[in-house]
Amino acid sequence: MTVLVWIETEGGKAKPTSWEAVGAGKLIADGFGVGVTAVVLGENAAGVAQEALKFGASSALACDDPTLTTYRFEAYAPILSKLVADRSPKALVAVATAAGRELAAAVAADTDSAILSEVVELSVTDGQVVATRPVYAGKLLSQAASTGEGTVCVTIRARAFKAPAEGAASGSVETIPAVLAEDSIRTKVVSFEAEAGTVNLTDAAIIISGGRGMANNPKDAPAGVENAEIWKAQDAFANVLQPLADVLGGAIGASRAAVDAGYISYAHQVGQTGKTVSPDLYIACAISGAIQHQAGMRTSKVIVAINKDAEAPIFKMARYGLVGDVFQIVPALTAELKARLGK
């Protein structure tokens, strides 16, 4: 018996949140008195599997078949389904990324297993996996438990669980075969094209977000600019918020209102129709805090709100609130942090 943890990779390297999945898997494994087995598929699988042992996996399974070099659902899902069917693990754990969600769902369907999704807390009680997950756009937390003796598939929300500390590797790596040959896989990856303006908000420990109020930038737009409002907002994101993000090592987020107004790209949107994030620190600048936005960031560990409207809803969920002008507070905060951090 074991708990399987799928380690998501990209370009032969593990995504950082995958180690959080190992931590979540260990919570389940400790409850049942079993070990954690990391499953690594694709380029450099053996190397990543060794790394997984350093992050607390007791064993690892690796497959670097050419069919797995780039992620394709058709190639990956049959391997995980076969592992669950053949080995009957207590659980299969993955981070709730786009790939993790579809793989967990496919395995649950293929093997007639239970599934618990978007989990933020885990425990084992009376031989059952008990999960806490947000519902109703994050307004409530619901507890659900697996029933029966079979495997339960679990997807965890990124940054909801602590990754184990890296240590000395102990355990073995077993090589497993692919299930489908290339001729049996319809999907073909022809090429990749990098998208400009993307940002990895899901993995960010610190996020500084701006709202529609960024257009209140006091700086005058240059003569001849077609839309002064958009120019002012874009300048504020680049020259007011970005320096603060650089000092703190954070990422830039935005409200839906700012994205819809054309101030910043959709890749930065936090909220019900954007990214759901759980950073250690979330600084909301000139964001009123509509329910749609709260749904995407309410699980942040520390929320700081900066807004000139003292009645803004964002203050109700903030641990620290500053009522005032973003364009005075943020530059002053950036300067002070630079001085204290020696940057």
A few lines on this structure:
By secondary structure, the protein is an alpha/beta fold. The protein is 30% helix and 25% strand. The strands form 4 sheets. Strands 7-11-6-1-4-5-12 form a 7-stranded parallel sheet, with helices on both faces. It has a 5-stranded parallel sheet with strand order 14-13-15-16-17.
In DSSP terms, counting alpha (H) and pi (I) runs of 4 or more, how many helices? 8
Note the overall shape: elongated
Order of strands across the biggest sheet? 7-11-6-1-4-5-12
Counted beta strands: 17
- Which regions are unreliable across 5 or more consecutive residues at pLDDT < 50? none
Largest sheet: 7 strands, parallel
* Strand content range: 15-25%
Domain unit count = 2
How far apart are the first and last residues' alpha carbons, in Å? 50 Å
| Content-based structural category | alpha/beta
List the quaternary state of the chains: single chain
Element order, helices and strands?
EEEHEHEHEHEEEEEEEHEHEHEEH
Helix content: 25-40%
CATH topology of the largest domain, anyone? Rossmann fold
The appropriate CATH architecture of the largest domain is 3-Layer(aba) Sandwich
Instruction: Give the integer mean of the pLDDT values.
Output: 94
CATH superfamily of the largest domain: HUPs
Radius of gyration: 22 Å
Instruction: Give the CATH level 1 class of the largest domain.
Output: Alpha Beta
